[in-house]
Amino acid sequence: MASDDVVELILEDHRSMEDLFRRMRSVDEDRAKALREFSALLVAHAEAEESEVYPALKRYKDIDNDEVEHGSEEHDEGHEALLHLLEVEDTGGEEWDEKLEELSEAVAHHLDEEERTLLNDARENVAGDRRTELGRAFMKARADQLASDCGDIENVRRLVRG
Questions:
Q1: pTM score, two decimals?
Q2: Quick check: 48 and 145 in contact, CB under 8 A?
């Protein structure tokens, strides 16, 4: 059975994002479909982290609030890079490759930093039962986002433009 531990759930999403990047780079894949899946996952994941996980982590004295704030800023940067890629019409062109790499760099940086700081801190400082509670809240918020078609270009525009 899959874990409800918020750290494990977030890591699972991170690995899914990396897989979707591979699909978006591959000429043998349906890049537009992979982008739609990626867009929905990235937005749902970020919004669920910000609504359910980040506020809870701020309450722990051994978790750096600046890292939590920085994570939110990086979500904004990821959404902006995502919008730029969503606006590219030709998935086989040079602009696609360029915007995909910009998105990939922004997201890879965030995933790496979040895994080394926030998630390690959460694993060490947040009790297992609380991580399970947070995991369930994260998954519910994530599912609600996915059900609302959160990866749609118009929603991403709203997120970027505030």
A1: 0.95
A2: yes
